[in-house]
Each structure stands twice: as structure tokens, then as C-alpha cells.
């Protein structure tokens, strides 16, 4: 029998199937995602990585954002890594906004994203605050902006009826420490309660109507001491979810204090009626630019993220950009392309422009069904009222997890280390064959 003619220079790789080759990874940032990578990297083989961080310590947002009242706006037992809970809980790049005259102010400008720990407001009679997002509503009660923002009841409030004032007793923390299954179920109950609220965001739904009635009723009760005309200005005319929903313990109450009252000049703040309010310190809550790198990022033929171009770029599945091989955005959970790169001899992977366009067209259409696309300014739309939504996923959390569990590989372009894409199959052996493990594992 004659032999089969093979390509002249092809040589079978001396390896077993899916043998992990050595790869090098750069992680930009030691925030929550960078720390998560370092933890999970302990499970990887033949991986060399380097984490680059602009700050002097790890933590990212939570290292920088240490203004008075700073906290996460969902229960702390949910705001943590999924693989382990903390039993001992006690209870995007920032930039200055484009406000006319902001930098002509001759006093002190303070941004919550880089809050000076030595800032002392005692004796400062006038300290205006610009913005009423999550950071703004947290810092107001501690430094006592008035703009419409939905101030919601506590997320999973049945588990923490006192809101952010909830304090776990030593007995409760001891139980969390000693009974991991109890802690897991407690965390699961919190997440279930939060995830069950997604139908509230469908325009025209009964759930949306009920959620607005509940939140509006709560706001009116908490603003009962305020001048009626001003109170009406604080109740949004847009749907719950158009802007980020914020719990804001103490915020509405602080607005009714006598010391709480927008172009900025060298003296202070100028309000819509033309009056100038002199100020000692002006605070600017954190403004987020979602999916934007803090360093210029270049793709094959152009700069992807630099200056004004940032907001126009949108990835597929919140993770990959076209013309950016082996570049992955970490916005939380993502799929395991790095495993495929390492185990199948992939040199680079990049999503096609057509797939990216179609994905974002679908996302835009779904967003029109949701309150995220309502008529309000929000960071979801890059600080505009009618821009394309760049932040949230167009669906529930479980919808997102299912979508990345089985990604459409036909939408991606792969190049390989070898001229033959099947070189990763090696000499015909598996790792089980080499280790002489149970070779009949498939019989159950």
C-alpha cells in the first residue's frame, strides 16, 4: 500500500491533545477584575502574566473612591466575588464634567473619584455639589444638586430593612463564618431578589407601573417637609431605570436641610435663575465613561480609544472589539477565549466588524423596549439624553450568562501558530493516556 502524500514541511507536533502552550497575558488595572484574574490564574498552567496599575495599591475604584458615605448601592454580600463570600461585612476613568467656568473657580475643586483624605469641611460655610448620581447622593448626607433622580427603596430590602444602617451582629457574622452553606443561601437569596426586578425595566409593563408607584410614593413621603414646588422638581418625569436607580439613604432628608440650596465662576456656583452662590469648596461626584480605557488603545488601522472617539466604539458581548486581536474588555463575567487560545494553538482572535454591527443593532432595538433608553441624561448613554446605550446588557443577568456560555464562534476570525489549524491534536494521545488515569471514565 502506498503512503499518502503530505504537505512538504508539515511535522506532527510532539504533544497531547489540548496541551496548554505557554502564553503571556497583560492585565491593565488591579481593580476588582484584575484581582479576580490574579486569583483565578492560580488554576492555570503555563501562564505568565503581568498586572499594570496606575495607583500605588490595588483596589481600583474602591481605592480611589473614599469620600464620606461611600458604599456599594446593593447589599454587600452580593457585591463580592462569586467563589467566596466575606462573612465579616459590617453592614471607568473619572473626568471633570464640561461645566462652563468650572476651572475658573478660585477655591478648591474636589472630585469623589480621587477624594482627598485630609479634606476638612468644618468651617466651610458653602460647599456646593454638582450631580445627583450614586456618588452625589452618598456624599450629600455627610456634607449637607438638586436634580431629578429616582431614589429607590433598598434592594433586597426584606433582608436589610434598615438599609445602609443595617449592622450585622457578632452572632450573625459568627454564623456566616462557621456555616458556609448558610452564607451561600443568604447571598443567593439577595441575588434572587435583585435579579427578579428586571421586568420592571420593560416600558409599558405592569411591573414598570407598579415600581414607579412604589418609588414615587416613598420619595414623596421622605420629601414631605420640602416646599411643594421644589418637591415636584425632584420627582422625575422619566421611568425608573432611565438613570441608574440609587438607594440613597439620607439623601432626600439632607436636601430639606436649610444649608442645602449651574455655570461656575471664580467665586462659586451660578444657578439657573442667574444668582451666584459663593463657595469655599466645590465637589464633583464621579462621572463614568463605560468601556473606555484610561490609556490610548490602538487597533490595526486606527486609534480605538482616544479623546472624543471613545464613546463611538462599542464591543460585542461587552468583551471584544473589531480590529483588536487578543484584546478583551473585562466588565465582569466573560467567556473563556484565553483557554481556546492556549489549548488550540491560536495566535490571535478578533471579532468581525459585521458581527459587531449586527450585535449592536440588535442591542439598540432591544433597548428601545427598556426604560434605559428613556428621555433622560445618564452615563448609560455617555452623559447624553438620546445617545446609543453603551453600558448595560440588553437583558437580564441570566440572559447574559446564557449568551456567553455558548458564544457564536463563527463570528470570530482566528489565526494559528501552525500552518495547520489541527496541529493541537498532537500525536494522538490525551493527558489521561499519558498519566494512565481511569481510561474508561465514560462508563457511568
Automatic annotation (TrEMBL):
<protein>
    <submittedName>
        <fullName>Monooxygenase</fullName>
    </submittedName>
</protein>
<keyword id="KW-0560">Oxidoreductase</keyword>
<dbReference type="GO" id="GO:0004497">
    <property type="term" value="F:monooxygenase activity"/>
</dbReference>
<dbReference type="InterPro" id="IPR051209">
    <property type="entry name" value="FAD-bind_Monooxygenase_sf"/>
</dbReference>
<comment type="similarity">
    <text>Belongs to the FAD-binding monooxygenase family.</text>
</comment>
<dbReference type="Pfam" id="PF13450">
    <property type="entry name" value="NAD_binding_8"/>
</dbReference>
<keyword id="KW-0503">Monooxygenase</keyword>
<dbReference type="InterPro" id="IPR036188">
    <property type="entry name" value="FAD/NAD-bd_sf"/>
</dbReference>
